[in-house]
Amino acid sequence: MVINNGEDELNLRRGDRVGVVRERSQPMQTTEVTTVPITEEMVQRGPLFSQEEVNDLVTLLNKYRCCFAFNLGELGCTTVIQMDIVDDGQPVVCKPYRASASERDTISRIVREWKDAGIVKETSSPYASPVLLVSKKDGDARLVVDYRKLNSQTVRKVFPTPNLDEHLERLQGAKMFTTLDI
């Protein structure tokens, strides 16, 4: 199947080349993360679930265990995708947002935890984006980076956008729904 995500009409004739497939010169690097199985005690649920539904849910979650992180040490990373920056010679440098002393302490603690977990590392990059704290629903602080300026220099990649109506139709008859925290 070929999808045209551009705005211009494109006519293809038999024999037109639309892409190239190449073998990777280097195997993809993967990091194996040790995880414990998900138990029913780890799953927050409403009182209307039957024991059979809970067991089915736990089985499903464990089948896709690699998709769920319960702590920073279980987060993965990828080197498969690379973002391209428009190189106009000027790196994006934004001054830090103002933060109180307690907010700076929280930011330092979170960054230290991320360093310890291997999520971030020290850099001498000429780029700098500001950070801020946002309160989660449970009151904990979430550290976010404001990449709006950097995004303006990022080359936009076009991917097929799934049809929302088709996805909603697939939910017909579903009995369980969930919300996930990032």
Automatic annotation (TrEMBL):
Q: The organism sits in which domain of life?
A: Eukaryota
GO BP term (any one): DNA biosynthetic process
Transmembrane segments annotated in the record for this chain: none
Query: PANTHER family, from UniProt?
Result: REVERSE TRANSCRIPTASE DOMAIN-CONTAINING PROTEIN, TRANSPOSON TY3-I GAG-POL POLYPROTEIN
- What's this protein's name? Uncharacterized protein
